[in-house]
Specification:
Chain lengths: ~400, ~240
């Protein structure tokens, strides 16, 4: 769907379907480039923040790393032993190197969707290209970090991830800002392609700032027997975050699972959902969302399942936990069946911590605070992500850091 | 060990306990019998100090400490614990994590699980979620064994448990209570054949209608049901 620059220019005025509108011109674009650097040589404050979103400085813990600060890609490295298995580079380099890359560029995310997609097209600041080569199974996670170092700054990345046939990989992406950054705008376009029988688990962790705005725009296209697991976690305050990633199960027996763990706190406004479009025989989808709202946070937890094939099935589960009378959670699950035979279902629940659960744990000797923290941490159950132990432990630590650990 | 004096309790505006008097001396195990709805579970939650149990009058003493107004977790710290009849499901909280918290490394959880016939893979399961009736009872008892309280409350440990498991948990409870004190609620009494009981109490209309030697009371109730008790002048007077 090639679009002319003119329609994209028109889209730059178009507010997004959801989330508060923003003046995209209100943020700074000018910056000086960052020189190439390894994570271990990065300034301590940057490395620490990167670690808070799962980015490891230990080389042996990750098969490869992409690190971008503001508009500069400072690191694109793949471990020697994995160099024949996957590629990591900036999307700019990939488009230059491979003529075929154009066929994946702006193909499942439409640049004319809204002002944020238009902005990412008109003012594009790199992003990562990760390609897992055919038949390669990468046992150690690949990682990517998108970092903003300046206050009131705008970063627009466009990522392209291709899992070639019969490949398998784990990718962890952490997006964060320097501790001095309070406000800004991050727009991230991500296009995922899962080829025949590929298996890709993508885990994205966000840690922004109180006055920061975030607008990811993500789509995935899955071929026959492909599996895509997308995990998303945001635990820290943000001014506004709006995203509604979509996966198209185009191939026979393709599978997708979206898992989301959200903690809205302070004055955060989170409008986060996932869409699954079941387009072929045997396609399956699952959306699991856990949302906790405290302080004055407002969370819209969306979900949309569209059944377009008679042999397709999907389920949506959304649970919300309210920890404050000033917070709110609006669960919006939607099911659209377009053919007979498709099976779509959902369950949604929003409430406070059940008194009987606290009492029960107190009868086991936990204090009231310990019991609450145990229930909250249990609610944010990282095992829904289905991650390998190393990543699971990293993420559990992040949750413990937010909610404290009773055990 | 435990002494309850003239305890009257209201739950959700309804009088559930009426001037209950009960004493379980150190080293003894008592059984509390009674028909459904007679107030047995309310007595347990009142002993534990659940906030929905509003104490209108009376006192609860534990090891000569007045615990009537004490929060649940503090009572537990003094050495009491309970296996519940209908424990709540808690998503994401793993049985294994709770067990490890209770044993504090002093007891081998895996070995303990064996004594209640709970497979180790249950440790990774969410607390009480998707457990069968029998599994619920066994994991409740397992947690209590891990907790090792001096005084143990068991609320209907035998309901919904199959014959093989009844023997297993009966023996586990009996072994556990050898050096401890306890109060055990049972409606059907199946588990009593495995336990050494020092005294039996029968509850009717929210109060203890009679107390006595366990063999007499238990055998009659087992044979003739609570209908027999209803003929008793003591119970008739309570109506």
């Amino acid at each position: 769907m090639p679009k002319s620059k003119k329609t994209t220019l028109n889209a730059i005025e178009k507010p997004a379907a959801f989330g508060p509108d923003l003046d995209v011109g209100a943020f700074k674009r000018e910056t000086s480039p960052w020189p190439p650097c390894t994570i271990s040589k990065l300034p301590e404050d940057i490395a620490q923040r990167a670690l808070s979103v799962g980015i490891s400085a230990e080389e042996k813990e990750r098969a490869g790393t992409y690190f971008q600060i503001d508009h500069s890609a400072i690191l694109q490295a793949i471990q020697e032993s994995f160099s024949e298995k996957a590629e990591i580079m900036t999307t700019g380099e990939a488009l230059e190197k491979y003529s075929w890359a154009e066929e994946y560029w702006w193909k499942i995310v439409d640049a004319d969707t809204d002002k944020f997609t238009a902005l990412a097209k008109l003012k594009w600041d790199q992003g990562y290209f990760i390609r897992v080569l055919e038949g390669q199974k990468i046992t150690v996670p690949l990682q990517a970090c998108l970092f903003i170092s300046k206050d009131n700054f705008n970063q627009n990345v466009h990522n392209l991830i291709i899992a070639e046939p019969n490949s398998e990989a784990q990718i962890i992406t952490g997006c964060t800002v320097h501790p001095n950054v309070q406000s800004g705008l991050h727009v991230g376009i991500s296009e995922f392609y899962g080829k025949k029988n590929a298996k890709l688990t993508f885990t994205m962790i966000h840690n922004w700032a109180q006055n920061f705005n975030v607008r990811p725009r993500t789509a995935a296209l899955l071929d026959d027997d492909a599996t895509f697991v997308s995990n998303y976690m945001c635990m820290k305050p943000v001014k506004s975050l709006q995203m509604y990633p979509v996966a198209y199960c185009r191939g026979t027996n393709s599978r997708v699972r979206f898992n989301t763990i959200l903690h809205g706190n302070q004055n955060s406004y989170l409008d986060v959902g996932s869409k699954v479009v079941l387009q072929s025989k045997g396609s399956r989808g699952e959306i699991i969302a856990r949302a906790i709202a405290s302080d004055n946070a407002q969370i819209n937890a969306r979900g949309l399942l569209i059944g377009e094939h008679e042999d397709s099935k999907a389920h949506l589960e959304c649970r919300g936990l309210l920890l404050s009378d000033n917070a709110s959670i609006h669960a919006i699950p939607e099911l659209v069946g377009k053919v007979k035979g498709t099976e779509l279902s959902h369950e949604a629940a929003v409430g406070k911590i059940a008194e009987d659960q606290i009492q029960y744990l107190m009868a086991r000797g936990f204090s009231e605070t310990e019991a609450e923290s145990l229930i909250i941490r249990g609610f944010m159950d990282v095992s829904i992500f289905g991650l390998p132990d190393v990543l699971k432990e990293d993420i559990r630590r992040m949750i413990d850091a937010t909610f404290g650990g009773a055990l | 060990m435990l002494r309850i004096e003239n305890l009257t309790v209201e739950i959700a505006g309804k009088r559930v306990l009426e001037r209950v008097n009960l004493e379980v001396p150190k080293g003894e195990t008592h059984v509390l019998l009674g028909p459904n709805g007679s107030g047995k579970t309310s007595l347990i939650t009142s002993i534990l100090g659940f906030p929905n149990c509003h104490i209108l009058s009376g006192k609860i003493w534990f090891n000569s400490t007045d615990i009537t107004a004490m929060p649940t977790d503090e009572r537990v710290k003094l050495g009491m614990g309970a296996a519940f009849q209908n424990p709540p499901q808690i998503r994401g909280v793993k049985l294994g994590d709770v067990l490890r918290h209770l044993t504090k490394g002093k007891v081998d959880e895996v070995k303990l699980a064996g004594t209640t016939n709970i497979p180790v893979d249950f440790f990774d399961r969410d607390l009480n979620l998707g457990f069968s009736g029998g599994e619920l009872k066994r994991t409740e008892i397992l947690q209590l064994l891990a907790q090792r309280p001096d005084f143990a409350l068991f609320d209907e440990p035998d309901s919904g448990v199959d014959v093989e498991n009844l023997e297993i948990i009966g023996k586990a409870i009996n072994e556990f209570l050898k050096k401890r004190s306890g109060l055990l609620i049972t409606h059907l009494g199946h588990i009593l054949r495995y336990l050494k009981i020092d005294r039996a109490h029968v509850m009717f209309y929210g109060t203890i209608a009679c107390s006595g030697k366990p063999t007499n009371i238990i055998n009659r109730i087992m044979k003739r049901g609570y209908k027999w008790c209803e003929q008793c002048p003591k119970v008739k007077r309570l109506r």
